[in-house]
Specification:
This is tRNA dimethylallyltransferase. Monomer. Pfam families: IPPT. It catalyses: adenosine(37) in tRNA + dimethylallyl diphosphate = N(6)-dimethylallyladenosine(37) in tRNA + diphosphate. Keywords: ATP-binding, Magnesium, Nucleotide-binding, Transferase, tRNA processing. Helix 4 packs across helix 5 and helix 9 crosses helix 10. The chain is 49% helix and 10% strand. It starts with 5 loop residues before the first strand and ends in a 6-residue tail after the last helix. It is globular. It is built from 12 helices and 6 strands. The protein has a 6-stranded parallel sheet, with helices on both faces. The chain is α/β, with parallel strands linked by helices. The protein folds into 2 domains: 232 residues, 3-Layer(aba) Sandwich (Rossmann fold); 59 residues, Histone, subunit A (Orthogonal Bundle), CATH 1.10.20.140.
Length: 304
């Protein structure tokens, strides 16, 4: 581990993390390390609001497009890759900006975070149950056993539900109890970006409109040819999940669009619940006229 401060920019989807991170990178001579679990997938560009090369404005970005859509996400693998990227950035005297709304991924980088063990037979049994009955009954079981964990996991995210239930059965304790008490791995400052709920809801609707206009449906069709429906993690991504249901004849295009808006708003509430529990996060209103200045004032002087 190389010494230096990591600046994390976290918060709900569509709140303005990416724009702030680009401005901070220019101000701090920094580079971005992605902490959005779905932007790790190649080809999932429009639906994840992945910045184009032009939008990155010359700022180097790490850990975009590293997995095929058929690969299941691994927080442990992400931790290894992200810490290597952070150490590389620090070794060159630059500032790492860890940017994204995937709370567990952020924690895995910033904290001394060891992952609970696995049990192949137990995992197989739970995955077989998931395939047979779908995620809803397993999610209900998780909510009864560990309401805090259930609050941070989407009801349709079968893979994460299975993992949480696996840990509960292995340890005999709630999944959240297996997560360590926060012990820093890197010195860091965490900046939370949020927006008034009504304004953010409107922004989400506009974002989904733009995704459709930019070609989310054709992008999803192309990813189907690369195995997206078989991707246990990628196929659950907001927008892609709804378009896949449309392509399967389960939804009309209008229904897929509207359900993407609703699902994204529900997801935002879960993201807020996760991040707002962390007292170390300094919250900023993205409508603040001097947002960049407010953010920079929270960064340690030696990092600026």
């Amino acid at each position: 581990m190389t010494s230096g401060t990591v600046v994390a920019v976290v918060g709900p989807t569509a709140a303005g993390k990416s724009a702030l991170s680009i401005a901070l990178a220019h101000a701090l001579d920094g580079e971005v390390v992605n902490a959005d679990s779905m932007q790790l997938y190649r080809g999932m560009d429009i639906g994840t609001a992945k910045l184009t090369v032009a939008e990155r404005d010359g700022v180097p970005h790490h850990l975009l497009d590293i997995w095929e859509v058929t690969e299941p996400a691994s927080v442990a693998e992400y931790q290894r890759l992200a810490r290597a990227a952070v150490d590389d950035i620090l070794s060159r005297g630059k500032v790492p900006l860890l940017v994204g709304g995937s709370g567990l991924y952020v924690r895995a980088v910033l904290e001394r975070f060891e992952f609970p063990g696995t049990d192949a037979a137990l995992r197989e049994r739970l995955e077989r149950e998931l395939a047979e009955v779908g995620p809803a009954p397993l999610y209900a079981r998780l909510r009864a056993a560990d309401p805090v964990a259930a609050e941070s996991i989407l009801p349709a995210n079968g893979r994460r539900i299975v993992r949480a239930l696996e840990v509960i059965e292995l340890t005999g304790a709630p999944f959240t109890a297996s997560l360590p008490q926060p012990t820093p791995y890197y010195p860091s400052v965490q900046l939370g970006v949020d927006l008034d709920t009504g304004l953010l809801d409107d922004r989400i609707a506009l974002r989904v409109d733009r995704m459709w206009a930019d070609g989310l449906v054709p992008e999803t069709r192309e990813l189907v040819g690369r195995g997206l429906p078989e991707g246990r993690t990628a196929s659950r991504a907001l927008g892609y999940q709804q378009v896949l249901r449309m392509l399967a004849g389960e939804l009309t295009e209008a229904q897929a669009h509207d359900e993407t808006v609703r699902a994204t708003r529900r997801f935002v509430r879960r993201q807020r619940s996760w991040f707002r529990r962390d007292p170390r996060i300094h919250w900023l209103d993205s409508a603040e006229p001097d947002l960049i200045g407010a953010a920079l004032r929270l960064v340690p002087a030696e990092t600026r």
